[in-house]
C-alpha cells in the first residue's frame, strides 16, 4: 500500500485538526489528589473538563464552557474542507481555529484550576494539543504566504530561489570599468 503524499499535504490541516480532537481524550491535567484524600494523582482529559468531574467526597467540577472549544475549533476547520457553504470562510478559519484552540486550552486550565481546591499540573495531552495547534499556525502562515507545501512545488520554489540568488550575487559581484564600460 503506497501513501499518496500529495493528498496528505492537501489535507494536512484536517489531519492535524483530527489529531487535536483525539488529543482531547488524553490526560491534559494532573490533579494533586493527595490534598483531596486520594492515594494517586487524578488525570483529567479535555473531554472530562467539558462534562465535569465528580469526586467520591461529593465535590465536583462543573461543565467547563471553554473546553467545548477544544473540540469545536478543530471540528470547524475540518468542516471547512467538506461543506461548500463554509469553504468561503476557510482562509479565516485556518487562523482563527488554532488561535481559538490555544486560548480555549489555557482558559480551560484556569477554569478547572479555579474550581478545584488542589494544585493542577499540565500533562502530556496539554502539551501535545499545544504543539499541534502551533503546527497548524505555522501551516496557516505558509499557506497565507503561498509558500508551497507539496514536493514538486518545493523543488520548483528552491530552484527559482537559487537562480534569483545566483543572479543577485552576479550583479553585486560585477564591476564595470568607468573608462570602457566592460
SSE order and pairing:
Layout: H1 5-10, H2 12-23, E1 27-31, E2 42-45, H3 46-51, H4 65-82, H5 84-87, H6 90-115, E3 120-122, H7 124-144, H8 151-173
Antiparallel strand pairs: 1-2, 1-3
Helix pairs in contact: 2-4, 2-7, 4-6, 6-7
Give a description of the structure.
- The chain has 182 residues and is mainly alpha-helical.
- The protein has helices at 5-10, 12-23, 46-51, 65-82, 84-87, 90-115, 124-144, 151-173, and strands at 27-31, 42-45, 120-122.
- It has a 3-stranded antiparallel sheet.
- The longest helix has 26 residues, at 90-115.
- The chain is elongated.
- The model has no long low-confidence stretch (mean pLDDT 79).
Number of strands: 3
Summed over residues and divided by their number, the pLDDT gives a mean of: 79
Distance between the termini: 61 Å
Profile the largest sheet.
Answer: 3 strands, antiparallel
- Rg (CA only): 24 Å
Number of helices: 8
Sum up the overall morphology in one term.
Answer: elongated
Give the proportion of residues in helices. 55-70%
Query: Helix and strand string, N-terminal first?
Result: HHEEHHHHEHH
Estimated share of beta-strand residues? 5-15%
Please list the strands of the largest sheet in the order they lie side by side: 2-1-3
Class inferred from helices and paired strands: mainly alpha
Assembly state of the chains shown: single chain
Low-confidence stretches: none
